[in-house]
Amino acid sequence: MRFGLVGTGHWASTVHGPGLVAHPDADLVAVWGRRRNEAEKLASRLGVKAAGSLEELIASVEAVAFAVPPHVQAPMATMAAAAGRHLLLEKPVALDVAAAEGIMSTVSASGVSTVVFFTARFSPGLRSWFAQLAGGDWESGTFVELGSIFTAGSPYQGSEWRHEKGALWDIGPHALATVTVALGPVVSAHVARGRRDTVTLTTTHRDGGIASCLLALDAPIEARFRSARFYGASGVLERPDNPALVGDAYGAAIDALIESSSGRPHACDIAFGVEVVRVIEGVDTTGRWSLV
C-alpha cells in the first residue's frame, strides 16, 4: 500500500516515518509538513520525496498516515478521506466532537478504512494480555499513568496542545482504549481535578462495570508510574511490566490498516475514535458526561 506521511515532528521522525519505511507491505512515497524545510530534511533521511502541498501528497498515495496535533489532523484527515484515501490516525482524532464526526462522516461516504494508533492496543508484547481482558469476566478496573513529560530534554516539552489540554486529552484516550476492552462501551463518566495536571476519570460501562483512571502529564519525576489492573469473576489481571516498543506497535497498526482495507473494520477505527472524543469532551466541558 502506498503511504504518504503528514508531519515532521518527533513522532513522525522516530516512529511513523521509520515504521512505514521498514514495513514490508507499505511503500512510503512522500512526506509533507507545514514547515517545508523540515519536510525536506525528514524526506531526505527517509529516502523519499517531500511533497509540495498536502494535495500533492494525497494525490500520489493510497493511504495517509498522520503525525500532527489533533486539531491539525482533523481537517486534513477529512480532506484525505474525501479523496478516497485510507487513514492511519493519531489519538485523539480531534479536539471536539464536531470535528471528529466530520472525519467519520466523510469516511463513511467514501468507504475508506481507518485505524487510530492507540499505542498499547497494537503492542505485540501486550497482545495476549488484551486477549485475556476481552475474554474475561470483569466488574471493575484501575488505570494509572503518571507522566512527567515537560521536563528539560523531553521531546514533548514544547507541545502546545498537550500543555493546553493536559493529561485528560493526551492519556485519557489510552485509558479508554484499555478499560473498554475489559468492561465494554462507556455510558457515563465524570472527572475530578487535583494538583498540577492530575485528573481522575471515572467511567461506568454498559454492563455496569466501573473503572477509575488516574492521569497526569506533569507529575513529579519521582512519582512517575504506570499500571492497569482489572477485577471480577475471572480473578485479578494486571498489565505485565512489559514496556511497549512503539516501533513494533506502529508496525502492527500499519498491518491493521492494510487488513481493514479489505472490508473488515478494526476495533480501533474512526468510530471508536469518535466515542473517545465524545467522552473526553463531555467531562472536560461539564465535569460529567452521559450517553443519555
Blueprint (SSEs and pairs):
Layout: E1 2-6, H1 10-22, E2 27-32, H2 36-46, E3 49-50, H3 54-59, E4 63-66, H4 70-82, E5 86-90, H5 97-110, E6 114-117, H6 127-135, E7 140-146, H7 160-170, H8 172-183, E8 186-193, E9 199-205, E10 210-216, E11 225-232, E12 235-238, H9 246-260, H10 270-286, E13 288-290
Parallel strand pairs: 1-2, 1-4, 2-3, 4-5, 5-6, 7-10
Antiparallel strand pairs: 7-11, 8-9, 8-13, 9-10, 11-12
Helix pairs in contact: 1-9, 4-5, 5-10, 6-8, 8-10
Features:
292 residues, Dihydrodipicolinate Reductase, domain 2, alpha/beta, 2 domains, globular, six-stranded parallel beta sheet, Rossmann fold, seven-stranded mixed beta sheet, 10 helices, 24% strand, single chain
Give an account of the 3D structure:
- The protein is an alpha/beta fold and 292 residues long.
- The chain has two domains: 2-120 and 248-268, NAD(P)-binding Rossmann-like Domain (Rossmann fold); 124-241, Dihydrodipicolinate Reductase, domain 2.
- It has helices at residues 10-22, 36-46, 54-59, 70-82, 97-110, 127-135, 160-170, 172-183, 246-260, 270-286; strands at residues 2-6, 27-32, 49-50, 63-66, 86-90, 114-117, 140-146, 186-193, 199-205, 210-216, 225-232, 235-238, 288-290.
- The strands form two sheets. It has a seven-stranded mixed β-sheet with strand order 12-11-7-10-9-8-13. Strands 3-2-1-4-5-6 form a six-stranded parallel β-sheet, sandwiched between helices.
- The radius of gyration is 19 Å and the shape is globular.
- The N and C termini lie far apart (41 Å).
- The model has no long low-confidence stretch (mean pLDDT 96).
